């Protein structure tokens, strides 16, 4: 569920076409904002997925999460009530920020009309765990149910934690990923105040340009990325189509700075994921980079990849699909895990668009501007969040 499409085939086609989902913000007046662009989900109708009355009780990020989960389950062919034990199906869908739009709306009501007019649904609509809660209620999944809130690492932590829940026998199936909807007055203002976002307002499609000398900040995106993870035995028993296998998960903390990344922390995270997967650094064929298009972040990740992979760093293909989707914050890891699965399934690496003048300090192979046919066997996905939260997952091409 993203600016490039509301179902996976459209999304994948736009990625391979190198299409940007970034455009001018139209949902509120941005005339006084330094940044006036974002990667918004266009023409989203929650009633295509959710009863109208129930949809009104959900923040936009929850609506995205539920819609993506319904799509994921449909794609998986799994009927929770008929094909499996609902108590063995869990939900782990996180959000970096949660219901920011709901917070804004209800705070305005509080100031203008008083406390008695604040909605009784304010808190349940706003809290970040409600994505997992609503997905459980709608799908009937009664297994482990939790939420990660680790800024931009949220989606990857959610998938990695779900992988471990299945691995240790606590669930057979996990619906997992991330959702975010912060293209709102306060959300955009807050990131503008951090001077973290691009101000290339006259060329929205060219604003997100990871690893390029002209990058000047990230572009905010919104949406959700949700996967259905299963134990191999469970998937095989029901004849599921298997896109890829999750084989490794690493996490670390920088213990460094609120917003500035530390390449040592990111490198430790990748090394832990490689060790967990039981593979060598040389086995990595593709990395979907965190690659946010910030001056500091892209250099830091490049350094971290070199620390983690050694000389092999110069042989691995690296791309940042945020150049097209924008940065979906807590949903980014979910969307990018989907991309890794599709890359393994189809043997095509999506590009880093807008990479016209590569930064000399970012000197790896970033698959510039056009997709690349490649028989990728092992893919790594990185996510790094404010607070020094790092998460890495490794996926492998499934061999029946």
Automatic annotation (TrEMBL):
Record carries keyword Phosphoprotein: no
Domain Ketosynthase family 3 (KS3), first and last residues per copy: 1-397
Catalytic activity, reaction form: a fatty acyl-[ACP] + malonyl-[ACP] + H(+) = a 3-oxoacyl-[ACP] + holo-[ACP] + CO2; (9Z)-hexadecenoyl-[ACP] + malonyl-[ACP] + H(+) = 3-oxo-(11Z)-octadecenoyl-[ACP] + holo-[ACP] + CO2
Any one GO molecular-function label of the UniProt entry: 3-oxoacyl-[acyl-carrier-protein] synthase activity
Keywords (A to Z) from UniProt: Acyltransferase, Fatty acid biosynthesis, Fatty acid metabolism, Lipid biosynthesis, Lipid metabolism, Transferase
Lineage top rank: taxon: Bacteria
Pathway: Lipid metabolism; fatty acid biosynthesis
InterPro entries: 3-oxoacyl-ACP_synth-2, Beta-ketoacyl_synthase, Ketoacyl_synth_AS, Ketoacyl_synth_C, Ketoacyl_synth_N, PKS_Beta-ketoAc_synthase_dom, Thiolase-like
Pfam families noted in UniProt: ketoacyl-synt (PF00109), Ketoacyl-synt_C (PF02801)
UniProt-listed Enzyme Commission number(s): 2.3.1.179
Function (record text): Involved in the type II fatty acid elongation cycle. Catalyzes the elongation of a wide range of acyl-ACP by the addition of two carbons from malonyl-ACP to an acyl acceptor. Can efficiently catalyze the conversion of palmitoleoyl-ACP (cis-hexadec-9-enoyl-ACP) to cis-vaccenoyl-ACP (cis-octadec-11-enoyl-ACP), an essential step in the thermal regulation of fatty acid composition.
Family: Belongs to the thiolase-like superfamily. Beta-ketoacyl-ACP synthases family.
Protein name: 3-oxoacyl-[acyl-carrier-protein] synthase 2
Species annotation: Paenibacillus chitinolyticus
The organism's taxonomic lineage, starting at the top: Bacteria, Bacillati, Bacillota, Bacilli, Bacillales
């Amino acid at each position: 569920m993203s600016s490039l499409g509301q179902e996976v085939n459209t999304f994948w086609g736009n990625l391979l076409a190198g299409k940007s989902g970034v455009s001018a913000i139209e949902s509120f007046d941005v005339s006084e904002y330094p940044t006036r662009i974002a990667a918004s989900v266009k023409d989203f109708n929650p009633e295509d997925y959710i009863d109208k009355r129930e949809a009104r009780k959900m923040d936009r990020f929850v609506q995205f999460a539920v819609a993506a989960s319904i799509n994921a389950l449909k794609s998986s062919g799994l009927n929770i009530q008929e094909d499996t034990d609902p108590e063995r199906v869990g939900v782990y869908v996180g959000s970096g920020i949660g219901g920011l739009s709901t917070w804004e709306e209800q705070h305005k009501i509080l100031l203008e009309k008083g406390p008695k007019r604040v909605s009784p649904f304010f808190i349940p609509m706003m809290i970040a765990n409600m994505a997992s809660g609503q997905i459980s209620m709608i799908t009937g999944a009664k297994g482990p149910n939790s939420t990660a809130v680790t800024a931009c690492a949220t989606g990857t932590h959610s998938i990695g934690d779900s992988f471990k829940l299945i691995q240790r026998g606590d669930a057979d199936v996990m619906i997992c990923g991330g959702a975010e909807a912060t293209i709102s007055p306060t959300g955009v203002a807050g990131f503008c105040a951090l001077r973290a976002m691009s101000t290339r307002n006259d060329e929205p499609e060219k604003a997100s340009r990871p690893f390029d000398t002209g990058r000047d900040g990230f572009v905010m995106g919104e949406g959700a990325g949700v996967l259905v993870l299963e134990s191999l035995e469970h998937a095989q028993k029901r004849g599921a189509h298997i896109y890829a296998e999750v084989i490794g998960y690493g996490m670390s903390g920088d213990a460094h700075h609120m917003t500035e990344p530390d390449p040592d922390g990111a490198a430790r995270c990748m090394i832990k994921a490689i060790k967990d997967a039981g593979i060598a650094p040389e086995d990595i064929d593709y990395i979907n980079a965190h690659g946010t298009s910030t001056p500091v972040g892209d250099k830091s990740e490049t350094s971290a990849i070199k620390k983690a992979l050694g000389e092999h760093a110069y042989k691995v293909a690296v791309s940042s699909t945020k150049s097209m989707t924008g940065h979906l914050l807590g949903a980014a890891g979910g969307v990018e895990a989907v991309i890794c699965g599709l890359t393994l399934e189809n043997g095509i690496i999506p590009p880093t668009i807008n990479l016209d003048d590569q930064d000399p300090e970012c000197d790896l192979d970033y698959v510039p501007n056009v997709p690349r046919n490649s028989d990728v066997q092992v893919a790594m996905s990185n996510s790094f969040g404010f607070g020094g939260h790092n998460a890495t997952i490794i996926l492998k091409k499934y061999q029946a």
